[in-house]
Design brief:
single chain, 84 residues, mainly beta, 6-stranded antiparallel sheet, 1 helix
């Protein structure tokens, strides 16, 4: 079974748990696009671009540290992750 890290994230619900920018903390929405360094989130009829490497996010009840997924989505999907 694949983990959430190995699945496509576009159209998944996401919530920002931690961020150095206090205005981003707690934002939730749907992922519209993903690049190697950013996520584009649709939240309340606006698009927010968030850098992956500085946030902690929650997707489908899985907490993810953005520093661990700073690669292209197609590379992230094929990568093997260590389960702690």
């Amino acid at each position: 079974m694949k983990s959430i890290l190995q699945m496509p994230w576009i159209s998944k619900n996401v919530e920002i748990l931690e961020s150095p920018d206090p205005s981003l903390k707690g934002i939730s929405g749907i992922i519209l696009d993903e690049t190697s360094r950013t996520l584009v989130i649709k939240s309340q009829n606006r698009r927010i671009t968030v850098a992956k490497d500085v946030v902690k996010i929650k997707i489908e009840n899985h907490d993810i540290d953005g520093k661990n997924v700073t690669q292209k989505p197609e590379n992230r999907i094929n990568r093997r992750y260590r389960m702690d």
